């Protein structure tokens, strides 16, 4: 694995630490390719119940490394085109992973780091951290699924405000606007994110996976097609041991015991 990404499995939770603190964890091609590859790998491991993404040092992630982009032999356009391909693969892996992925926002999340955090299922933001869209202030347009996630989280008008004016968004405002799930004390985002993944994994993971997939697809699916997707997902969940346990426990008026399988 690249030194730019540290991966540790803690009690079944894959904890990714972006590890370029001298660049505020801005990603170059090697770093983002490694993240995409390792996300693909853990999606298939039954022993891993979910993932946490955070950053070493003072920042979560400052987005694409503009110094790397500036030095690309093919020029700015070719550099962004190449970098975005691997970056977008990482976002797709997160959105399609049948397990929870939580962003532990320990510091600045800007540009591609902002979109990376929004692409996760949940976001735990430390009280002193800051979100910044950043693209438009640099004469660029948003990538990393930011234009997909942002209006779905905050609505079109607020998303356009964030895109156009690019103000710094502190933790309380981020929580009020629905950009983050909760606020953690300084230094506590990773611990809280791990606990969140564990809590979800103690429930029915097939149910979580189906719900995540259905909600992700719902904005682009006509009603009748979405209803059919729901019907099939419901039947598949009911066929799992978790589904049978949940229904049986309800009938028997007891708490279900899920195995996280």
Taking all Cα atoms into account, the compactness measure Rg is 19 Å
CATH homologous superfamily heading of the largest domain: 2-enoyl-CoA Hydratase, Chain A, domain 1
Going by CATH, the architecture of the largest domain would be Alpha-Beta Complex
The CATH class label of the largest domain is Alpha Beta
N-end to C-end Cα span: 28 Å
Report the principal-axis shape.
globular
Main beta sheet, described? 6 strands, mixed
Low-confidence stretches: none
Residue-averaged pLDDT: 93
Number of helices: 11
Fraction of residues in helices? Answer: 40-55%
One letter per element, helices H and strands E, the order comes to EEHEEHHEEHEEHHEHEHHHH
**How are the strands of the largest sheet arranged?**
1-2-3-5-7-10
Please provide the count of β strands.
10
CATH fold-type name of the largest domain: 2-enoyl-CoA Hydratase, Chain A, domain 1
What is the number of domains? 2
The fraction of residues in strands falls at 15-25%
Derived structural class: alpha/beta
């Amino acid at each position: 694995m690249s030194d730019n990404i540290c991966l540790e499995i803690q009690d079944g939770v894959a904890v990714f630490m972006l590890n370029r603190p001298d660049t505020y964890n801005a990603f170059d091609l090697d770093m983002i390719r490694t993240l995409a590859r390792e996300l693909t790998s853990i999606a298939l491991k039954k022993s891993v119940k979910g993932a946490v993404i955070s950053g070493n040092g003072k920042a979560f992630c400052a987005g694409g490394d503009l110094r790397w982009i500036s030095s690309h032999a093919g020029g700015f356009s070719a550099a962004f085109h190449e970098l975005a391909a691997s970056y977008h693969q990482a976002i797709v892996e997160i959105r399609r992973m049948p397990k929870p992925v939580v962003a532990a926002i320990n510091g600045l999340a800007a540009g591609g780091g902002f979109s990376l955090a929004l692409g996760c299922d949940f976001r735990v933001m430390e009280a002193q951290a800051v979100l910044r869209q950043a693209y438009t202030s640099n004469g660029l347009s948003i990538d990393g699924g930011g234009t997909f996630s942002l209006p779905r989280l905050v609505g079109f008008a607020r998303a356009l405000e964030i895109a156009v004016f690019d103000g710094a968004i502190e933790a309380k405002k981020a929580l009020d606007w629905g950009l983050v799930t909760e606020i953690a004390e300084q230094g506590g985002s990773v611990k809280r994110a791990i606990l969140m993944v564990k809590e979800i994994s103690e429930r029915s993971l097939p149910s979580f996976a189906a719900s995540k997939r259905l909600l992700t697809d719902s904005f682009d699916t006509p009603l009748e097609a979405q209803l059919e997707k729901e019907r099939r997902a419901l039947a598949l969940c009911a066929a799992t041991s978790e589904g049978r346990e949940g229904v049986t426990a309800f009938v028997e008026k007891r708490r279900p015991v899920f195995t996280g399988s």
